[in-house]
Write a structure and sequence with these properties.
heterodimer, A: alpha/beta, two-stranded antiparallel ribbon, 15 helices, 14 strands, about 50% helix, B: mainly alpha, 20 helices, about 0% strand, extended
């Protein structure tokens, strides 16, 4: 009898181990494919030089853009941020700052800084949002519009901005992010080169911690001095330069960071705008666009620009980072739940198979399987079901593979963009790519599991994030997902 | 090989691959740092020499010769400078570059190397009017299939007053019909201005691809050539929606009151984009006869049409404003709100409804 139980346990253990291993292998295979696709994309479309050349080539043909910057309690930094946005190099754009019911005098700072006065503006209400209390304009800055509305969250503020804007393309961003001077001109390229099909364009977001920033411009690129921010630097490289670039190449990109993204206004309105009541509104919108275009049977493209266009400050504190990651993961799960019926459906093509398959494998199963692996494999080893030799060999393969993927992303950065000015930056990032496998990766998994738990409990809190600020301290909501 | 051994060999291979990759990158970076430093130094030299040339300094040519082998770097620097410089200084710089045979060097670059470098060469050659340059640009245009390089070559040819035949550009647009790049629109405007007769012929030719006709319609309108009036009026009633919209926009750009009848018809078009374009056109041309029809558009179900109607009426002077005021005091909810907001937005009324 005891033999039977032992045998049963052994079979169960082997099945679990096989499931964990197969899932892990599949994930690793996907990362390898992403690396190859991203490399191919970078070879096919090398980065464009900046400055006069970019202007000469694209300015005449570039469509107008409305820059939507939702602001919530950003009185300390808002004036500088808006000045920086107004000095972007783009032939035709307007900046629409949406004051989302701030309680710290953000609106008054804007009124005082830009000599604003109430204006009448004719706008439609195709997307739902909380009531607008007033619209302000300035004779000194005709490009600037301020929308003052009741508090409703980022998605709600962006919907208000979409309604008030009149340009065919809008750019959603965080008011506290720093944009490259030619960010719009760079990111608009897919809309210029393929205007009929392009519905959205994502841009690479880089980490601003450690960089020298003055007057809303990154003057000197440096690596962060904080270890946690350094670990996130490697993570962002992997996320943007590898994963997003790869998926955009096969038109299966399902997320564009809330920190920077260009969208076809009419298509977003057709898709219903940003969804309320989710913390992953950026991902949700992109998935809705995929669904809309597939349902209509229209050819379309969700593109991605590998050159860095936006700089953001990341948490340097475990508690804040944990909250942010849990929220991002919750956002992914919520989007998956709302649109799971697209998965593996023929009418949704690659988005249904590759895009949703990836979300299912990496976001839904990923944290649970990885945690199962961390928990069960030592258990099997302790109970003698797994030999020490195998345990060590598995661990070695898992860690070395993680290092290869991170190093691959670094190689992509170094071979095409080369934004880290010093050779020692590369050495440091390589060491960090190794180090992240020992502790940080596992910690990240715990945060993602916390996200699963919050998702199951239907928690809707955003949490607060204390930022150092590029010039001055400020407390505000967390930035968008990378 | 046992599975255990396979696992160990896999991890060793992965670790070796990562190590090799990073070592290569680091060694490459060390070499590249030197080449970057040289490039930055050469660029500084070139820019200093450009300043000296523009100031009329005699020995600047010698310093330019030191860096003249760097065709792409020189091209990028020249284009950046010339975007900011006009007049005598610009002429001096071009003469100096010609003296050190940069034009010849860039002509050679059109046929070799990476597309990015060839594009810079094509763009830089736009400042050297000569039969050799035109001939080289044309030859490169005939040889290359890269869309971006073709646009750069065409633009330089247009800037050198040696525009490629319209048919060739139209063919390019047709070839790229899968991705209707906007890059051709400014080119087409310049081409049509240069040879309106050919553009009119192509516009009237049923064999011209639909997308090309759409681009031609707007370009013909902005050319201001009144010979385009009749074909544009005819096209504004075409079954192709895109062509109708573009033709009405063309008529608006032309601003000729003879388009009145067609604009009045377009104001009643079943497609809202055409109605919206017609409102805009009526405002731009100043068609007072369109006021009653535009007032009706203030209650259009589509917001854009209502908005454009409000804009058009405010642009139509006292007659239009009176129409808006009447609508603002009228019975319809949509038209009352649209009219009130249009008045308020232009400071013509104290409050919006």
């Amino acid at each position: 009898m005891s033999d039977l139980i032992l045998n049963g346990l052994s079979v169960f253990a082997q099945s679990i181990a096989a499931f964990v291993i197969v899932t892990g292998l599949l994930q690793n295979l996907i990362y390898l494919v992403q690396l190859a696709l991203a490399a191919a994309a970078l070879i096919q479309t090398p980065p464009t030089p900046s400055g006069a050349l970019l202007w000469r080539r694209y300015a005449d043909a570039s469509p107008p853009i409305a820059l939507l910057a939702p602001a919530y309690n950003e009185a300390v930094t808002i004036a500088e941020s808006v000045h920086s946005l107004l000095s972007l190099q783009y032939p035709s754009f307007e900046v629409i700052v949406i004051n989302d019911g701030s309680s710290d005098g953000t609106l008054q700072v804007l009124i005082d800084s830009f000599g604003l006065r109430p204006i009448e503006r004719h706008y439609d209400l195709p997307t739902a949002h909380k009531p607008i209390r007033g619209v302000y304009g300035s004779e000194l800055q005709p490009r600037l519009i301020i929308v003052d509305k009741e508090n409703g969250g980022k998605a709600d503020a962006l919907n208000a901005g979409i309604n008030v804007s009149r340009a065919p393309i809008f750019c959603s961003m965080d008011a506290d992010s720093v944009l490259e001077a030619d960010a719009l001109l760079r990111a608009v390229r897919p809309f210029v080169e393929d205007p009929e099909r392009t519905v959205a364009v994502g841009g690479t977001v880089r980490i601003a911690n450690g960089c020298r920033i003055e007057n809303g411009r990154v003057l000197d690129i440096r690596l962060p001095r904080n270890l946690l921010a350094l670990l996130q630097t490697v993570e962002y490289l992997r996320g943007f330069l590898m994963a997003r670039l790869a998926w955009s190449r096969i038109n299966t990109l399902t997320i564009i960071s809330g920190a920077f993204g260009l969208f076809h206004r009419n298509r977003v309105i057709e898709a219903g705008g940003y969804t309320h009541g989710t913390v992953g509104e950026d991902m949700e919108l992109v998935v809705k666009l995929h669904r809309l275009m597939r349902d209509k049977g229209l050819p379309y493209r969700v593109a991605f620009v590998p050159e860095p266009v936006c700089w953001t400050e990341v948490p340097e504190d475990l508690r804040v980072l944990g909250r942010q990651r849990a929220r991002w993961h919750r956002g992914s799960l919520e989007t998956f739940e709302r649109h799971w019926d697209m998965m593996f459906q023929r009418e949704y093509g690659r988005v249904g198979t590759v895009g949703f398959g990836y979300i299912f494998l990496v976001d839904v199963l990923g944290p649970i399987v990885e945690m199962l692996g961390y928990f069960l494999i030592p258990m099997f080893w302790l109970t003698g079901l797994l030999s020490t030799e195998y345990l060590l060999a598995f661990a070695a393969v898992t860690f070395t593979f993680g290092v290869v993927i991170s190093v691959g992303s670094l190689a992509l950065e170094e071979s095409s963009l080369r934004r880290f000015p010093r050779a020692r930056d590369l050495v440091l990032l390589t060491l960090v790519a190794i180090l992240e496998n020992f502790g940080y990766r596992q910690l990240n998994n715990i945060w993602r599991l916390r996200g699963v738990w919050q998702y199951l409990r239907r928690s809707q809190s955003w949490g607060t994030m204390t930022r150092k600020g590029f010039g001055a301290p400020a407390a505000r909501r967390e930035a968008g997902a990378p | 090989m046992s599975s255990l051994l396979l696992l160990w060999w896999t991890s060793i291979a992965l670790a070796a691959a990562a190590l090799a990759c990073m070592s290569t990158l680091l060694v490459g970076r060390l070499f590249r740092e030197q080449s970057y430093a040289r490039r930055a130094r050469d660029r500084d030299r070139a820019c200093e020499a450009f300043f000296d040339v523009m100031n009329g300094s005699g020995d600047a040519l010698g310093r330019l010769r030191v860096v003249d082998h760097r065709a792409r770097l020189m091209g990028e620097a020249v284009l950046e400078f010339l975007a900011m410089v006009r007049g005598v200084e610009r002429d001096r710089l071009i003469t100096a570059l010609r003296t050190i045979n940069m034009d010849e060097r860039w002509r050679r670059c059109l046929f070799k190397g990476r597309i990015a470098g060839r594009m810079v060469a094509a763009e830089a050659l736009s400042i050297f009017p000569s039969p050799e340059t035109v001939s080289a640009l044309r030859e490169a245009l005939n040889q290359t299939r890269s869309g971006n390089l073709r646009v750069a070559l065409m633009r330089s040819l247009i800037e050198l007053d040696a525009a490629p035949p319209l048919a060739q550009v139209l063919q390019d647009i047709h070839r790229n019909s899968g991705s209707e790049t906007l890059l051709y629109i400014p080119l087409m405007g310049r081409l049509v201005n240069g040879d309106t007769r050919a553009a009119l012929r192509a516009f009237g030719d049923p064999a011209t691809p639909p997308r090309a006709r759409v681009i031609l319609a707007e370009a013909l309108g902005t050319s201001g050539d009144f010979r385009a009036l009749r074909p544009l009026c005819a096209a504004a009633a075409a079954p192709d929606i895109e062509l109708r919209i573009a033709s009405v926009r063309g008529l608006a750009a032309m601003g000729h009151p003879a388009a009145e009848a067609r604009i009045l018809t377009a104001l009643q078009d079943p497609v809202w984009m055409v109605r919206s374009a017609a409102c805009e056109a009526a405002g731009r041309i100043g068609l007072r006869a369109a006021v009653p029809l535009i007032i009706i558009q203030l209650s259009d179900p589509v917001w854009w049409v209502r908005f454009r109607a409000g804009e058009a009426l405010s642009a139509l002077g006292p007659t239009g404003v009176r129409g808006l005021q009447a609508a603002a005091a009228g019975p319809g909810d949509l038209s009352r709100r649209a009219a009130s907001l249009a008045l308020a937005e232009r400071g013509l009324a104290m409050t919006a409804a």
